[in-house]
Design goal:
The structure holds two protein chains of two kinds.
Chain A lengths: L1 H17 L2 H21 L8 H34 L3 H6 L4 H21 L2 H4 L2 H4 L4 H28 L3 H29 L6 H12 L2 H10 L12 H23 L15 H6 L8 H9 L3 H25 L6 H33 L3 H5 L5 H14 L2 H13 L1 H13 L1 H27 L4 H22 L5 H33 L1
Helix pairs in contact in A: 1-5, 2-3, 2-22, 3-5, 3-8, 3-9, 3-11, 3-22, 5-8, 8-9, 8-11, 8-12, 9-10, 14-18, 15-16, 15-19, 16-18, 16-19, 16-21, 16-22, 19-20, 20-21, 21-22, 21-23
Chain B lengths: L6 E10 L2 E11 L4 E5 L6 H8 L7 E6 L2 E2 L4 H7 E4 L11 H11 L4 H14 L15 H13 L5 E5 L7 H16 L3 E6 L2 H4 L5 E6 L2 E7 H9 L2 E8 L6 H7 L3 E6 L6 E7 L5 H10 L4 E6 L4 H8 L7
Parallel strand pairs in B: 3-8, 3-9, 6-7, 7-8
Antiparallel strand pairs in B: 1-2, 1-4, 4-5, 9-10, 11-13, 11-14, 12-13
Helix pairs in contact in B: 3-4, 4-5, 8-11
Classes of the chains: A mainly alpha, B alpha/beta.
Chain lengths: 512, 318
């Protein structure tokens, strides 16, 4: 009974031991901690409680990495078997559904936990810098592990329900956001836009969700309970533990329903109604690769409509939430919020799209067929970029709409950029990320089969945190020069990535 | 079409870091023929095919397809080849028609040409009835047919097929071979790799055997057997009844290296002789001279697999 349950777990641990990425990731996390310790050690005498600040920063980075890396890893637990058509083989063995779920989920949870636990001895060095106790450090890591447990099981559930990893990730992100971020945003929005303290059942629910937000828990644990009537922190294990176990039990219950079917017979295209025909792909013409990517990778017109609806739900949902709490939003507030939400959405879509344009071809092993088409590689890349950009139209429309509603904010930003050198450099530094980060995502997608997006975001985030710390610590009197250096580095990095991507496409096609 | 060979490889070498995949590979393939490319697993077949498909550049050596250099004239070569890899590389969320239509458009065919060609290749591969089916739901054999249809959609002169029959059931294999024979009759040159020589025996005009990255034999399929024989040849003599003294008579002939009864209780005898010193007629005459009741006297044709085993080394390449 016990042996089958642990068979998959042991296999995963062995694979993890052989993987190159695991020790690199652990070493990278430890190096980040040591970097922050070294930087803060210089300011030991100048800052109050430097150890506390370093520890909080390390916790935030961990939480960020955990959400990104964790979700991708957990959501592929069962979907990777479905995508490779190996789930049927697993089910033919002596493994029961619970053994499969346990083996696939536990190995990922343990892998993530080891990644976190490996940092504890180094994080304890923060005690020597002052301002934080060993107990606080251990409590911080307990929050991380509890959150990991919750996300692991949520991802596992979505992995059981969905056939594709991408859909499972999207659903996990949605549910996770609603649980972890939606409540706090709703609670804080009632405080920000409200004329009085929130009350009623909904406010209690929002307050409870806020109290279980890991970032809030870390904040209150490290810096003490916040003011303005914020709820006190609660034990991370109650909410995350019960939630995680519930998701696991639900995954077990639904396993038979969602993991037994296989596509044995060829489905024919159904005769569609006139309206549905408009959503179907027309015949391709000169730009065949752009056509293929737009209709079959980006979802075509159906994808555009879904994105429009997604942005509309996000923006109008938030406005509705505020209005629901008897508050009023100025049109400028709505415009700014629309620009912010759509801008963030566009950035996310940009990274996702960049990781997919060649990543998907690589996963489907279609690069070799694509590359042997007698079209120059540059033209293939341009057509693929064009299709990816077309999918950004809905997000872009919402940014433009926001700018039309609140033109003053845009004018103010423009005035700031054109008049202040520092603002111009800061804006350029952020803007160049819109090129370098998608390029990094595209490059990583050609290096690794899964997890290019979280790896990109993690590298971008850690890189920028390190840059910000250096900016703060090293270049106190010359921010402009340091920002310029950052822009130059990003520029050369982008050029290097562009050159490397061309080479990697050819290599990946040959390796198919 | 020029008179250049369809494929001309000379001194090809390709290594992955320290592992030499192919070394000094040299052979030619004539136009409008089916050429088998055979070797055990890890022999370097796929690497050679990837070089021919312009996916890998040769590190040393020259490779020409219809007289065009695969590095310098890459796009011209790509127009004339159709490469089918050893795995299913398909956009499975498309229907069969959409998939072929996409590749047709990518190769620059207009809608009218595509309609015509897609109809033809679907008829050839017997997939016309499945044109509106989603690829993801098709069986392995059907997906293989769609792959082949995709390779044909731009009407290439040379087909590069990497183990196209792997994973297919016997019926699907036979049907695939029939399609390939039909394609040869349409003037296509087919370069087909396999690790099973006997599978290609009846199909191919010529063959190249590769082992551990080196060419062991290249030439006509028929010549493969004689190439492994040397000067010694074998015949089987079948009698109606047992004959004592026959073996002694045959063994005494000049040039006969071995004469033995094949199975105890059976009247079949194996005779091996040096064909430069004695002919089969002399052997038959000697048997008749001792009044043996001969039922049959035939050449002991070596099986293709024996030839393959003789040419390739045992064990797995390290």
């Amino acid at each position: 009974m016990i042996r089958p349950i642990f068979a998959l777990f042991i296999r995963s641990i062995r694979e993890d031991n052989r993987a190159k990425f695991t020790p690199i990731a652990r070493a990278a996390l430890v190096l980040v901690i040591l970097f922050f310790l070294a930087i803060n050690h210089r300011n030991f005498a100048r800052q109050p409680a430097p150890g506390l600040q370093v520890f909080f920063l390390v916790m935030v980075i961990n939480l960020f990495g955990l959400v990104l890396g964790g979700i991708t890893a957990f959501c592929s637990a069962i979907t990777e078997e479905k995508e490779d058509d190996t789930l049927g083989l697993l089910r033919m063995t002596n493994l029961s559904p619970v053994a499969i779920l346990f083996g696939k989920g536990l190995s990922r949870f343990v892998g993530g936990m080891l990644l976190i636990v490996a940092q504890i001895p180094f994080s304890l060095l923060c005690v020597t810098l002052g301002g934080v106790s060993g107990e606080q450090i251990l409590s911080g890591y307990a929050v991380l592990i509890a959150t990991l447990f919750f996300l692991c099981n949520l991802g596992l559930l979505m992995s059981v329900i969905c056939r594709k990893t991408g859909v499972a990730v999207a659903l996990t992100l949605f549910v996770g956001t609603v649980i972890y971020v939606g409540g706090p945003i709703a609670y804080i929005s009632t405080l920000e836009f409200g004329r009085s303290q929130p009350s009623g059942v909904w406010s209690d629910v929002f307050a409870y969700l806020l109290a279980n937000n890991p970032l809030y828990q870390l904040g209150t644990m490290v810096f003490g309970a916040a003011g303005r009537g914020m709820p006190l922190t609660v034990s991370p294990w109650t909410f995350n533990g019960i939630g995680g176990v519930s998701f696991f039990l639900l995954a077990w219950a639904l396993f038979g329903r969602f993991c037994s079917g296989t596509a044995e017979t060829a489905p024919r295209r159904k005769k569609s109604a006139k309206g549905a025909k408009l959503l179907r792909a027309p015949r391709p013409d000169g730009w065949a690769i752009a056509w293929k990517d737009f209709w079959f990778l980006q979802g075509g017109r159906r994808g555009l409509i879904s994105r429009f609806i997604g942005y509309a739900v996000l923006v109008f949902g938030f406005v509705g939430l505020v209005t629901f709490n008897n508050n009023y939003m100025e049109s400028d507030d709505i415009g700014e919020m629309m620009m912010s939400f759509a801008g963030i959405g566009l950035c996310v879509e940009l990274v996702l799209g960049a990781a997919r344009i060649f990543g998907i071809e690589r996963r489907w092993l279609t690069l070799s067929s694509l590359i042997t088409i007698p079209i120059p590689l540059g033209s293939i890349i341009r057509q693929k970029i064009l299709a990816a950009l077309a999918s950004l139209i809905p997000g872009f429309c919402f940014v433009v709409l926001g700018a039309m509603i609140a033109p003053e904010s845009l004018e103010e930003l423009w005035r700031d950029i054109t008049r202040r050198e520092e603002s111009f450099l800061a804006f350029t530094y952020v803007a160049i990320h819109l090129i370098s980060i998608p390029l990094l995502a595209c490059w990583l997608s050609l290096k690794m089969r899964r997890g290019a997006v979280p790896a990109t975001i993690a590298i971008g985030f850690v890189g920028n945190v390190i840059f910000a710390v250096l900016l703060d610590e090293v270049a106190r009197s010359s921010d402009e020069a340091f920002l310029l250096l950052g822009i130059v580095i990003q520029f050369f990095l982008s050029v290097a990535l562009m050159v490397s991507i061309r080479k990697r496409i050819a290599l990946a096609a040959a390796a198919d | 079409m020029s008179d250049s060979p369809a494929i001309e490889i000379s001194g090809l070498r390709h290594a992955y870091k320290s592992h030499v995949a192919v070394s000094n590979v040299t052979f030619t393939v004539g136009q409008k023929s089916i050429h088998g490319f055979v070797g055990p697993n890890g022999a370097g077949k796929t690497t050679t095919l990837k070089v021919l498909a312009t996916l890998l550049a040769p590190q040393t050596g020259k490779v020409h397809v219809f007289g065009q250099d695969i590095v310098r004239d890459r796009n011209l070569v790509r127009r004339r080849i159709g490469y089918m890899p050893d795995h299913f590389s398909m956009y499975r969320q498309m229907t069969v028609f959409e998939y072929l239509d996409f590749f047709g458009a990518a190769y620059g065919l207009n809608q009218k040409q595509r309609d015509q060609t897609i109809g033809d290749v679907l008829a050839l591969t017997d997939m016309a009835g499945r044109r509106n089916d989603y690829i993801q739901g098709l069986s392995r054999g059907m997906q293989q047919r769609v792959s082949l249809a995709r390779v044909l959609v731009h009407d290439p002169d040379l087909l590069l097929l990497d183990e196209p029959a792997s994973g297919l059931d016997p019926r699907a294999r036979i049907e695939l071979m029939e399609i390939l024979q039909e394609l040869r009759s349409l003037g296509k040159t087919i370069f087909i790799s396999s690790h099973i020589l006997s599978e290609l025996a009846t199909l191919c005009d010529s063959v190249t055997i590769l082992d551990r990255g080196q060419v062991k034999y290249t030439g006509a399929m028929r010549g493969l057997i004689s190439a492994t024989e040397g000067d010694i040849t074998g015949y089987i003599l079948t009698l109606a009844t047992e004959h004592t003294g026959l073996l002694q008579t045959l063994s005494a002939l000049p040039g006969v290296t071995a004469a033995k009864q094949m199975e105890a209780g059976e009247f079949r005898y194996s005779v091996q002789f040096d064909k430069t010193r004695i002919g089969p007629n002399a052997v038959l005459h000697a048997a008749l001279s001792v009044e043996a009741q001969i039922v049959a006297f035939q050449e002991d044709v070596k099986h293709l697999n024996d030839a393959f085993m003789d040419l390739t080394d045992p064990g797995v390449r390290t």
